[in-house]
Amino acid sequence: MIREANILIIDDEKDQAEAIAESLRNIGYKCTTVMNGSEGLNIIRKDRIDVVITDLIMHEIDGMEILKETKEKSPESEVILITGYGTVENAVTAMQKGASTYLLKPINIKQLRAVVDKVVEKQNLVRSNIELHKQLEEKFGFAGIIGNSQQMHRIFNILKQISSTTATVLIVGESGTGKELIASAIHYNGSRKNNPFVALNSAAISESLLESELFGHEKGAFTGALYQRKGKFEYANNGTLFLDEIGDMPLSTQVKLLRVIDDGRITRVGSNESIKIDVRIVAATNKDLGELVKDGIFREDLYFRFNVICLRLPPLRERQDDIFLLTDVFIQEFSKKHSKNIKGITPETRKILFRYSWPGNIRELKNCIESMIVIGQNDFLDINDIPEHIYKNNKTALPGPVFPVGLPLDEMEKEVIKNTLAYAGGNRGETAKILGIGERTLYRKLDKYGLK
Question: Does position 130 have pLDDT exceeding 60, yes or no?
């Protein structure tokens, strides 16, 4: 059996190094041995090494130095230390700095093989998860945002265009639609990604403290101001400031914020000196700012400053195609978090999740799946695991699809099949029964419309 891992063994005791290598080669590993730390580091710097097995105590360059440089050059590489009884304390310290484990001399071959198999298995799992997330993102998302609906593809395209700019962005959407995640994606995919991303929820802070939170204050500026304090703008300098729930910001603060946007300078509360800042602003709201302007609650000039680029996030009920994709992602995430071996979700359960309108949007779906994972007792999530309010609430069931007049028959048929397949939880046999056609006919139509 060939085991896919490159192993480097570093030990100034040649016999021990060769014995370790031989024992691992016999079970299929590819091993390289060197007799000193310097030679080992040269290999680590130029080649991909999956596992480094190194003696802790060696002349010139010891195992701690090997560990340090390995993790700097290749954080995903695993390091196993070989140590004597007198250096166990140092080995434990090394594990705190990133070593996988340590083995005591004399080496037990059976234990050695078990340890190497375990760290390689762990490494492969991490890499496969990284690759899976990469594939998911390439196919269904952008910077950790998952979606396959037409609305989300449009948003991904806009994000790719605006992330590298410094334009102010306004994100509009209901609570739970992922506004902060979008703001974070804009920052971390732009030129400011190595500088701070600072978030502030305008609705979560009292009017009396909001100005200080934004602009900072000087010592003694008001009762309780016992020391000088930087505000969010200063912390976000050269980075991005995310202002959430901007529609709840009081008019008095709006005036000062407008001045900062126009001048690029802030003044701490209690100070006469202005400070130059360079901050990209991304704002978000779940309210209609245009209506707030009409009502005199939001300044029109500030609205136009924010509304340079407007991203409208659809609620989950308007992107039904994404419900099962998100469900599968959350099942994987929370199964790992709660150490559960959940393999999937039953078709009947998918139907109920698909029909629900999700007033709390993605946040509600995420919480629902986590709850189901925690209480689920079987390999597949089923109806009994669904939170009671979702299972029983028929008033929030989604309406059936509405087709515009004049839509070609082929397009209507495609939409009916797609929606029925989703309703049936991906079960093709059940889909065929609901549509009143044979499975072979369904397969031909799935192929025709590219719905496989």
Answer: no
